[in-house]
Amino acid sequence: MTDSSPLPQHQQVSHFKQRTEELLTSALEQEGTCAIMTLIVHHLGVSQSERIPFLCEELDIPYELKVYKRAPMVAPDELKALHPQGTAPVIQDGDVTLAESGACVEYIAHKFGNGRLFVQPSDPEYADFLYWWHWSNGTFQPTIGRVLMSRAAGLPDDHWVVQSGRQGLRSGLEELNKRLASNEWLAGSQFSVADVMVMFSLTTMRYWATYSLAGFDNILEYVQRVSKRDAYQRAMKKSDPGMKLVLGPDAPESAMT
């Protein structure tokens, strides 16, 4: 016959405490697992979405990276299906699906990074930060894009669209080169999301709109500084492991050919 008599009170208390601790530990482990897996970054190879792994590595936050190959030049259908915009980057955080580089950067930095890499309004460098943060993807990247599209359209070199694009690119490079003559980073003394944003335009984007950085020594030194950051190196190895980084002055062979 099995003895069904209750445990002594002190043993009941001990057993209850042990069981409570086991349940609490299990719940915390499950919560931790969910937190680790919550952020998914969808990256299209050789594209501007490399910015997002770079940011995540800088912030040292956990994320799951999904890499997509081009089919053959544009995003594959499975990536396009994630968001109506149909382009990379795309991030997913639980029920949230978000596209657009700047939006993804702000979302991640503020939700997962406590606003790190965003210069605050009380900082003397705030105005400079705002300008270069928006300049990187609001002015400079579209300028390079116009150069790319005019070449893809096969316009002759003397066409006004081609001439305008080239002049715009040169003006942007001159402005950036001047800024970096006396500043380590775009915002000034602090590395920020402005630097995360512009690095793609100065490097990988040159596979699509090939241009030289010869004569822009301050930009070249800046590119080297960014490329030596551990976070950048980790991000590029994960996002585009087989791609040769474009860090020097010479224009690379176009990916369009």
Q: Could you describe the 3D structure shown?
A:
The protein has about 260 residues and is an alpha+beta fold. The chain has a domain of about 100 residues: Glutathione S-transferase Yfyf (Class Pi), Chain A, domain 2. It has 9 helices and 4 strands. The protein has a 4-stranded mixed beta sheet with strand order 2-1-3-4. A hairpin with a 2-residue loop joins strand 3 and strand 4. It is globular, with a radius of gyration of 24 Å.
Biggest β-sheet strands, sense, barrel: 4 strands, mixed
Average per-residue pLDDT, rounded, comes to 90
CATH class of the domain at 126-228: Mainly Alpha
Structural class: alpha+beta
- Distance from first to last alpha carbon: 85 Å
Task: Give me the CATH fold name of the domain at 126-228.
Answer: Glutathione S-transferase Yfyf (Class Pi), Chain A, domain 2
Tell me the number of strands: 4
